[in-house]
Specification:
heterodimer, A: about 325 residues, two-stranded antiparallel sheet, 11 helices, 2 strands, B: mainly alpha, flat
């Protein structure tokens, strides 16, 4: 009798030990797995920090050599090692701004069409088609722009623009020349085609967050569709729409291939949008592999660093705005 | 009477403004679709006429000569696969931390912010970064091996020149943020009850995540990976200073590797007609691959939302 009791006790002890061993194994596995995920998480942070540090270190010699003058100088002479960043910085900003001015109304228009007036059966296919535009690689826009769009503009649109603006002072300086197909305006137009889908898909998403009750109440008061959009939907989603716009702006600022093909790569600032120019990304893409190590390549790093800082600020602002909309939804 | 008239006028003007604005919105959608049709139409027109067997069996030609795109196609596939294999695990694990262990923690909010920046950061800048860590410096080291395996040690020589490995790393850095984002979103959609039920049965946390949460979110996570693959298969800017290009057949990771995007860039900018023709063919190949991938990923995503 007491023997069996003892046996049971022994078995139980063995079992407990076995169990605790298995549990310890589980605990170890748990810790290892959660630690791995944590490391992966920090990897993301390390990559972004690494990008910033690498660019800054590469840029340092150029910043030391030129100082603040780098931001205002227009001279670009690789053999003499004289480099000024202004034309590229100006080109980046001006192409993105023109692109935004064109893409913002069109992108918003598409979003309004998709959320308000489009027949239900067409909403999905049209939405997907517009988003496919966002998936087309930028080099495709580039090659299309170079072979099809730029010659078309040079032949049919640019002369008309020059003729139309010629009698108007100030504006005639902005639209002069026009003999080149590859110019600032072509690059801006290609950029605008590229960012339309970003703007429309973000705007559509935030438009859909407007409570149906609000819109129905406005319709009930006799508002037209446009009045509902203008007075209810847009005020309600303003932060999100601006955030989406800045996201698209971030894309436009950093876009490389589509611009490199069609901007003409000229290191000077021309008042006319119909003259060739350059952007930061186009300069780096064109010249980096051929640049001598030393001041030339350091200059390109400096341009890259400036581009990164500009896009970082724009994207951070966009994210903070979109986060505000998400938080409001969460509450 | 005049009050009624004024009302009618106001009413008519409101109605007019409404129809003008709505017409403009329809026109905007028309413009968006028109670009898509124009670009795809040109690509098909210019590309299809150039597609022939030679494209898939011959190497990229020297200037003025005829040839194919075989080495570029294989190089692109190779780097895309390698980049995806390197980036996906890191992305999924980071997304797992954010959705499972650190939901609502400060670190998660911070990493989400950083990840979103990385997601839209200019890809050319990522190319510059990889250039400084893998192409510019010359690294040489030996990994000691137990016994006489591989002659006692493996000698590793990295960098000093452009390489396929650097290209793949640059692509992996673009994959990571896409996968992190979708993994986190998809895991957040998995109902907490599922995890609670598994935990109540005594399942350890890591197994709950691997066997319950991952399984429930599988389709969504795969969609994210496919979208990431679609994104990197057309990326050109980060490859310009990493993989560069190679006119010949090569699968060596430590050497410049041919790839479609850079070939398209170089050939399109060249004055040779044959090169330009090949650039169009390459563009058609990339676009069809990317569009098929993203359509496939989308249908996978919608199937899931229908079932769930």
């Amino acid at each position: 009798m007491s023997g069996t009791m003892l046996n049971v006790g022994l078995d139980a002890a063995k079992l407990t030990e076995q169990r605790s061993r298995v549990l310890r194994g589980f605990a170890k596995g748990d810790r290892a797995f959660s630690l791995t995920t944590l490391i992966a998480c920090w990897t993301v942070v390390i990559i972004l920090t690494g990008v910033m540090v690498a660019l800054f270190r590469g840029a340092l010699p150029a910043f030391q050599a030129y100082g603040w003058e780098f931001f205002v100088s227009q001279r670009w002479s690789p053999p003499k090692e004289i480099f000024g960043g202004l034309p590229a910085i100006y080109g980046t900003l001006i192409t993105s701004l023109i692109a935004m001015a064109i893409a913002m109304p069109i992108g918003l228009g598409i979003a309004i069409f998709l959320t308000e007036t489009c027949p239900m059966a067409l909403r999905k296919p049209i939405g997907i088609a517009v988003e496919l535009l966002a998936g087309v690689p930028s080099i495709i826009y580039g090659i299309w722009g170079l072979f099809i769009f730029a010659p078309f503009l040079a032949e049919h649109v640019n002369p008309a623009l020059v003729k139309f603006f010629a009698p108007i002072p100030l504006l005639n300086a902005l639209f002069a020349n026009g003999s080149y197909g590859t110019n600032v305006l072509t690059a801006s137009l290609i950029l605008s085609i590229m960012i339309i889908p970003f703007i429309s898909s973000v705007s559509r998403d935030v438009f859909e967050t407007v409570p149906a009750v609000l819109k129905e109440a406005a319709y009930g008061l006799g508002c037209t569709t446009w009045e509902v959009v203008r007075k209810v939907v847009i005020p309600h989603t303003r932060v999100g729409v601006i955030g989406g716009g800045m996201l698209a702006l971030g894309r436009a600022l950093g876009e490389t291939m589509a611009v490199t093909f069609v901007i003409g790569n000229a290191h000077r600032i021309n008042p006319s949008f119909l003259d060739p120019g350059t952007t930061i990304s186009a300069t780096i893409a064109n010249e980096f592999t051929e640049a001598d190590p030393g001041l030339y390549s350091s200059t390109l790093f400096a341009l890259g660093f400036i581009l990164f800082v500009i896009t970082f600020i724009v994207l951070a602002a966009a994210r903070l705005m979109l986060m505000r909309i998400e938080r409001r939804l969460g509450n | 009477m005049s009050a009624v008239n004024m009302d009618m006028r106001l009413y008519a003007s409101r109605k007019l403004r409404n129809s003008v604005m709505m017409t403009l919105c329809v026109a905007a959608a028309g413009i968006g679709l028109m670009w898509l049709a124009l670009i795809l139409g040109t690509l098909l027109f210019e590309g299809v006429t150039g597609v022939e067997l030679k494209v898939f069996t011959e190497m990229t030609p020297p200037p003025g000569d005829s040839g194919g795109l075989l080495n570029a196609i294989v190089g692109s596939l190779f780097m895309t696969v390698l980049g995806t294999l390197m980036g996906t695990p890191i992305g999924i694990l980071a997304g797992t931390y954010m959705a499972e262990y650190g939901r609502n923690s400060k670190l998660t909010t911070f990493v989400r912010f950083i990840n979103d920046i990385l997601l839209s950061a200019p890809s050319i800048v990522i190319g510059l970064f990889v250039y400084t860590i893998l192409v510019a410096p010359h690294i040489e080291f030996a990994i000691p091996m137990p016994g006489n395996l591989f002659g006692g040690a493996i000698n590793v020589e990295l960098g000093g020149h452009f390489s396929g490995l650097a290209g793949a790393v640059a692509l992996a850095i673009i994959v990571i943020p896409v996968v992190v984002r979708t993994t986190e979103d998809m895991l957040n959609l998995v109902p907490v009850h599922l995890r609670e039920a598994a935990s109540a049965l005594g399942m350890p946390r890591s197994l709950v995540i691997r066997h319950v949460a991952y399984r429930a979110a599988r389709a969504g996570i795969i969609t994210g990976v496919l979208l990431a693959v679609a994104r990197i298969s057309g990326e050109t800017a980060p490859l310009l200073f990493t993989a560069l290009n190679n006119q010949f057949w090569s699968l060596e990771l430590n050497h410049p590797l041919a790839n479609l995007p850079v070939v398209i860039f170089q050939y399109a900018m060249s004055p040779y007609e044959e090169w330009q023709r090949l650039a169009w063919v390459g563009a058609l190949l990339i676009t069809s691959a990317v569009l098929m991938l993203s359509i496939f990923a989308r249908t996978l995503g919608t199937q899931r939302s229908k079932n769930g």
